[in-house]
């Protein structure tokens, strides 16, 4: 009598989940991929949706289409609410349950407002397509409201944009808003000059892009200044309300009056981390990431893997960064470990993250790239950023569409997705 096929379940269709699924495409397993969305989202380009450069469909690919050639794989649209680790079951919100022999948790991360969840309504972050379209609405509406303002003071309030957090997301968002104000919207309004917008980038660190080498950080700041972005380092946000942002600068307090605030300051793992801690007693770090074993499994539960932004694993004395290449590598590693168990082969050694460098784009022909001993900035770094991002977009059609959009934008400064939608 033949043994039943190995049942593998992946929760999450982001980079880690998708690359794990693709690595199991020829494996003797029955694979199920569960996600509450029916698409894979290319998050590194979300800021371009938020600033009208791309449409949501340009950076998202249906999971069923991405996995359609994998005959051993089914996709389930559903939300996981709990785990039964004793009986090895995944519990869904509709009351159904899926059995597993191996489980890969790749549920990603969400915003962290540092114990101030009330700030989210006033300062949206950028993690989902809904976040991106809401930010786009607020940016474009601010210029429209400024055009109709009755006083100079009111106009200035609408033309003040505050981005909290000067990491890659904050820098890219601030630079894109600078390009919109200085180039895209020039001569489109009659009562205001969009290039007079005040764009403030705030961070508690002493410089922008604090995880980058200091020379690249300074070059990025100079590029931001050329786009009209004013950076303010060493400041801490004390409050966010209807009138703006209150910050602490040393011993003093200051209130910045604005209607348009965006959050790029912190992330925390998804709620799956807390579920897993409750069911397995695995410890979590301060960002609710799971403290995994060197092989990415949960201590005491070798059948469960936590990967991507959900996992905390030390690399060279620091946690593996929450970036797409790390998630891809973790997903592939978990798949290899499952294959080794099925085939009775030796398990792969401890997971080792191979850093391929860091890239951040500031604007047109302006970017910084950290490839270890090699630091690149300006046009060459921008070309590297373009090539690498195009290479990792899922779906040939999306790659072509994004390439065409970028080319059109480069020569015309036009952003074709400047739609005010939503409330």
Plain-language structure description:
It is a single chain. With 423 residues, the chain is an alpha/beta fold. The protein has two domains: 6-111 and 268-343, 3-Layer(bba) Sandwich (FAD/NAD(P)-binding domain); 117-265, FAD/NAD(P)-binding domain (3-Layer(bba) Sandwich), CATH 3.50.50. The chain is 32% helix and 27% strand. It is built from eleven helices and 27 strands. Strands 5-2-1-9-21-20 form a six-stranded mixed β-sheet, with helices on one face. Strands 13-12-11-17 form a four-stranded parallel β-sheet. A hairpin with a 2-residue loop joins β23 and β24 (318-319). α1 (15-23) packs parallel to α9 and α4 (129-147) runs antiparallel to α5 (152-158). The longest helix has 20 residues, at 324-343. It starts with 5 loop residues before the first strand and ends in an 11-residue tail after the last helix. The model has no long low-confidence stretch (mean pLDDT 94).
Ordered list of secondary-structure elements with their pairings:
Elements: E1 6-11, H1 15-23, E2 29-35, E3 39-41, H2 46-50, E4 60-62, H3 63-66, E5 73-77, E6 80-84, E7 89-92, E8 97-99, E9 102-105, E10 109-111, H4 129-147, H5 152-158, E11 160-164, H6 168-184, E12 198-203, H7 214-226, E13 229-233, E14 236-241, E15 244-249, E16 252-257, E17 260-263, E18 267-269, H8 272-280, E19 290-291, E20 297-298, E21 301-306, E22 311-312, E23 314-315, E24 318-319, H9 324-343, E25 358-363, E26 366-371, E27 374-377, H10 379-392, H11 396-412
Parallel strand pairs: 1-2, 1-9, 2-5, 9-21, 11-12, 11-17, 12-13, 19-22
Antiparallel strand pairs: 3-4, 6-7, 7-8, 10-18, 14-15, 15-16, 20-21, 23-24, 25-26, 26-27
Helix pairs in contact: 1-9, 4-5
């Amino acid at each position: 009598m033949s043994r039943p096929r190995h049942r593998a379940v992946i929760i999450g269709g982001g980079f880690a989940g998708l690359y794990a699924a693709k690595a199991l495409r020829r494996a003797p397993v029955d694979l199920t991929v569960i996600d509450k969305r029916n698409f894979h989202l290319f998050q590194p380009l979300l800021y371009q949706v938020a600033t009208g450069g791309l449409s949501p469909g340009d950076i998202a690919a249906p999971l069923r289409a991405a996995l359609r050639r994998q005959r051993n794989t089914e996709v389930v649209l559903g939300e996981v609410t709990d785990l039964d680790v004793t009986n090895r079951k995944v519990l869904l919100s509709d009351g159904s349950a899926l059995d597993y022999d191996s489980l890969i948790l790749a549920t990603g991360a969400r915003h962290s407002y540092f114990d101030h969840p009330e700030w989210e309504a006033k300062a949206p972050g950028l993690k989902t397509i809904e976040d991106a379209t809401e930010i786009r609405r607020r940016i474009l509406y601010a210029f429209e409201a400024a055009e109709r303002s009755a006083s100079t003071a009111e106009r200035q309030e609408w033309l003040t944009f505050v981005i909290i957090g000067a990491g890659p997301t904050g820098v890219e968002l601030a630079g894109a808003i600078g390009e919109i104000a200085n180039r895209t919207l020039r001569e489109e309004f009659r009562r205001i000059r969009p290039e007079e917008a005040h764009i403030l980038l705030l961070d508690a660190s002493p410089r922008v892009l604090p995880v980058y080498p200091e020379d690249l950080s300074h070059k990025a700041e100079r590029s931001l200044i050329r786009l009209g972005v004013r950076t303010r380092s060493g400041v801490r946000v004390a409050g966010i309300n209807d009138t703006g942002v209150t910050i602490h600068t040393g011993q003093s307090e200051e209130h910045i009056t604005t209607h348009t605030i965006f959050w790029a300051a912190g992330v925390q793992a998804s709620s799956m981390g807390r579920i897993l801690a409750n069911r397995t007693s695995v410890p979590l770090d301060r960002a609710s990431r799971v403290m995994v074993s060197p092989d990415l499994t949960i201590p005491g539960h070798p059948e469960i893997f936590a990967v991507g932004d959900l996992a905390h694993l030390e690399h060279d004395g620091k946690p593996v960064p929450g970036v797409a290449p790390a998630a891809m590598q973790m997903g592939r590693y978990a798949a290899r470990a499952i294959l080794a168990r099925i085939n009775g082969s030796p398990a792969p050694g401890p997971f080792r993250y191979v850093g391929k460098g860091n890239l951040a784009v500031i604007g047109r022909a302006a970017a910084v790239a950290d490839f270890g001993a090699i630091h690149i900035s300006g046009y060459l770094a921008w070309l590297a950023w373009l090539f690498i991002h195009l290479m990792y977009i899922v779906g040939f059609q999306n790659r072509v569409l994004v390439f065409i959009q970028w080319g059109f934008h480069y020569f015309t400064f036009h952003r074709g997705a400047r739609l005010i939608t939503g409330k």
